Amino acid sequence: MPWAAALILLITFNFTTMAYLAHNPKNPNLGILRWKWKLLLDSPHEWLILGDSSCLHSANIQLFEDGLGTDAVNLGTFGDLTLMHDYFMLKAYIDKFSPPENVLLIHSFDTTMRNMSERVIAWIPQPWGYWETKEPEILSQRINTLKVWGIRVIPLYFQPKTVSFLLFRPDQWFSEPIRTTDGFVPIKKADPRTFENDWLMMASDLSDVHYQISEDSSAALDKISELAEEHDIDIYYSNGPFFEGMYSISGFATYYNKYISTFKAWTDRSENTRLLNTKGFKVRRASCDSVDHVDSAAASDFTNTIIDEILTIRGKNKEHNLQKPSNLHDTRVRE
């Protein structure tokens, strides 16, 4: 029957596409996510640097390693994964290797208000049901597992833009983005147009908004604390760098103070958790690719600030020999 042949063809095309995308994800965020999981489980490190895209673009691993005399990897991904993803990564790392000596968490001021969606839960390259075996129960209570399954196995329905791209751009079938071995993705030059679009959206979205940590992020912090205390891991938390003009948004100062006080309350609960950079690392517009993505010069300045604060906490606040860009003094807004 013609309809049976069409159905067989459709199913074959779907699973062929699924197999292809498993090795060649064309969605940029999905590609970054799979790359970072590969880095996570490839080899052990003294420092795991976990977080969102502000972490991805701001934690300069070469400077970090030189400044602290250590070995580190940048595992920053994107904001929709939330702090819960940091917990999943840390737990998976401990299960494969042994507990890392230190963990640095870097998140932007708005991403910890988000809960994980079925889309990103399905994307995380872990076995089916990982959200139940690794806890916390909050995910299994909320998510639609049928939708998670569909996102994983029916790309024709759940990834139509990617499928359309592949159909009309066969020249991109085997192209691969350049990936670094340390996970850091520098922005060489900020794009004013990208920044302007993001700034207008953020100014609208955050105007007179009150900060409230999400259920997922709160549960993740509890689980991260448990791991830190059980395995004696030193955990450091820092907000990512952001555009100085954020304070011109109505209510942002109150919003940011509540954000910081939330994380201070968390870090104060344990000797293993510490809060860095409480005043906020504010950056001039010329160095911003978005309100919380900065160019490589500002990223170097941010990394050096994080190093200094870690050394201060450790009682080793002394000058460290770092090679800094000549225009560093132009990137940060000095208090």
List strands and helices in order, with pairings.
Blueprint: H1 2-23, H2 28-42, E1 47-51, H3 53-58, H4 61-68, E2 72-74, H5 82-96, E3 102-107, H6 118-123, H7 130-133, H8 137-142, H9 145-153, H10 155-158, H11 160-168, H12 192-205, H13 215-231, E4 234-239, E5 242-243, H14 252-267, E6 273-275, E7 282-283, E8 288-290, E9 293-294, H15 296-313
Helix pairs in contact: 4-15, 5-13
Q: Can you describe what's shown?
A:
There is one protein chain. By secondary structure, the protein is α/β, with parallel strands linked by helices. The protein has a single domain (2-330), classed as SGNH hydrolase (Rossmann fold, 3-Layer(aba) Sandwich), CATH 3.40.50.1110. It is built from 15 helices and 9 strands. The strands form 3 sheets. A 5-stranded parallel sheet has the order 2-1-3-4-6, with helices on both faces. It has a two-stranded parallel sheet with strand order 5-7. A two-stranded antiparallel ribbon has the order 8-9. Strand 8 (288-290) and strand 9 (293-294) form a beta hairpin. The longest helix is centred in the first third of the chain and has 22 residues, at 2-23.
| Number of domain units | 1
The CATH architecture can be given as 3-Layer(aba) Sandwich
Largest sheet: 5 strands, parallel
Low-confidence stretches: 316-335
The fraction of residues assigned to DSSP E strands is 5-15%
- Classify the secondary structure makeup into a structural class: alpha/beta
Spatial order of the strands forming the largest sheet: 2-1-3-4-6
Could you state the order of secondary-structure elements as H and E? HHEHHEHEHHHHHHHHEEHEEEEH
SS elements, strand count: 9
Mean pLDDT metric:
84
The CATH superfamily is known as SGNH hydrolase
Rough shape? globular
The amount of helix comes to: 40-55%
Radius of gyration: 21 Å
Here the CATH topology equals: Rossmann fold
